[in-house]
Amino acid sequence: MKQGLLDYIQGNLLIGDGAMGTLLYSQGIPIGSCVEWLNLKNPEMIRDIHLSYRRAGANLIETNTYGANAEKLSKFGLQDKVDEINRAAVMIAREAAGNDTFVVGAVGGIMGEIKKDINRKKLEMVYGQQIDSLVAAGIDGLMLETFCSVDEALLAISLARKYQDLPIVCQLTVQDIHRTQDGYLLEDAFLQLYHAGAHIVGLNCYNGPANLIRSLETIPLDKGFILSAYPNAGIPSYEDGKYIYSPSPDYFGWAAKTLYELGVRIIGGCCGTTPEHIAAVSAALKGKTPITKRAVSGIEEKQEKETIHISGPPQQKTLPELVREKTTIIVELDPPRDLDYLPFLEGAKALKEAGADAITLADNSLAITRMSNMALGRLVKEQEGIRPLLHLTCRDRNLIGQQAHLMGLYALGIDHVLVITGDPSRYGDLPGASSVYDVSSIEMIRMIKKLNQGISFSGRPLKNRSSFTVGAAFNPNTRHLQKAVERLEKKIEAGADFIMTQPLFCREQIEQVAKATQHLSVPIFVGIMPLTNHRNAEFLHNEVPGIRIPDDVRARMNGYKGEDARKQGMEIAKELADKVLEYFQGIYLITPFMRYEMTTELTRYVRNRNSLS
């Protein structure tokens, strides 16, 4: 009878296999397709890859089930095939493994790839379903891999622990050398995984051998856990739609020997590795037995006195602080669509003189290309002396660009942002542009709040802390106001400091919003947008997402033209402002078509009204 995996590894090394996707793509399987579906559609192809790694020297094979969970399979309409796909994968791997090779069921982390809110209950269901299928099919152990979040890994381990005799390998993926992406020191993270029930802990993916070696050289061998490592082949280049990994098998074999000397007992390969890389690992480790003791050097981190930068004058109150004391006015002024920005600055100056507390600048609203709101925000702050509040859309930048953008705002002393999802690019002036949406607005709020704690998006500690005041958008123009409020509650839970609404055009609706949001803990700035004419009202009502204008308001605008139409639009806006001020101290004025004289008049109206009351 074959020795159990945990008994075997006490006195032996294990050679893991290499990448599955890399070989499938090289054989013509399109990048981005569902490789797990091949367990049913083309099992011979999967079996041949397993065999190629076994022949190269691997004695530990992972099933082709990294993404075989309901959440990831749902992208391909295969969420009902979880059990079938996982059982087939185990059968294929068993056929290739023979009697002298262990088979572990691969379970990949979810939250690092699928950028949306998934609650714990759903994660438990998704992981539990896949783990149950793999265990029922007869695996020798479980390989939990590519987990960006320690907490998510702990959840998966807790579900696997109901199978008390099941060996568990749990591998995190890191970008920083000594910390996880959610901020834990690596040794502390490994100890948490071990005490939760993982017998073997380690790292895989995201990094080539060099960074994994640097990460693991500070990990002691006397804490009870066993170490594993599955590095990528290296850092790939991107050529003609393909990822090209250049590091040679010889280099990978050298790296395997170095990892072995650090006490790592399971060594395989991740992205970019091939049977040739695994053959080099096998040759480098031939005849060796596990290392159980070695000297460990401490983490050499440059200790510097922490400095905390507070953007803006120290005495300046944030907008949420200000609005709790008095009526506070935010005015939106859109950046220009061309290179002439002087009218924008003239408008900002006029609005400041009228009494506006902040100028808010959209981020390519309606997916229309406009001048950078970062650059204009700096000019508004320095030249006009008024606080800039910048919109930050999830559409236009990936997470790398988002963090870089926020770091730039920090350097410029711009500390107020409004996080929004953003209209899809296909509706704008460059319909062929990509809509990124790496994360939702809720997740982006949460990540900005991490920057305020001195933690980067990747989990790396930062030398300073940002001090962003974060706003969230709220659209009450929906048939289901309560559902909109529930989503708003999630934004507040994520860390939103204040709320800005879409423009409202109905006094009764303002009352409804006041009642529906009276329990919320953060201030609300209610949007008001003066109408310029009847055609403007019809366009906003019928074509702009998130805006609804009542029949009676559109009827009031009908029949007026030119200056008379603008006067009528201003009268409606003033009536709405009066109603807003019955319930709220925050007003958000939206300037139509750069006609800042309209929002300047409204700003003065609100200021004069308060001075008389």
From TrEMBL:
Cofactor: FAD; Zn(2+)
EC assignment: 1.5.1.20
The keyword Flavoprotein appears for this protein: yes
Entry-linked Pfam families: MTHFR, S-methyl_trans
Annotated Zn(2+) binding sites: C205, C270, C271
Protein name stated in the entry: 5,10-methylenetetrahydrofolate reductase
Tree of life domain: Bacteria
Keywords: FAD, Flavoprotein, Metal-binding, Methyltransferase, Oxidoreductase, Transferase, Zinc
Family annotation (CDD domains): MTHFR
The Hcy-binding domain, residue ranges: 2-285
GO molecular function, one term: methylenetetrahydrofolate reductase [NAD(P)H] activity
GO BP term, example: methylation
Gene3D superfamilies: 3.20.20.220, Homocysteine-binding-like domain
Matching InterPro entries: FAD-linked_oxidoreductase-like, HCY_dom, HCY_dom_sf, Mehydrof_redctse-like
Associated pathway: One-carbon metabolism; tetrahydrofolate interconversion
Keyword Transferase: yes
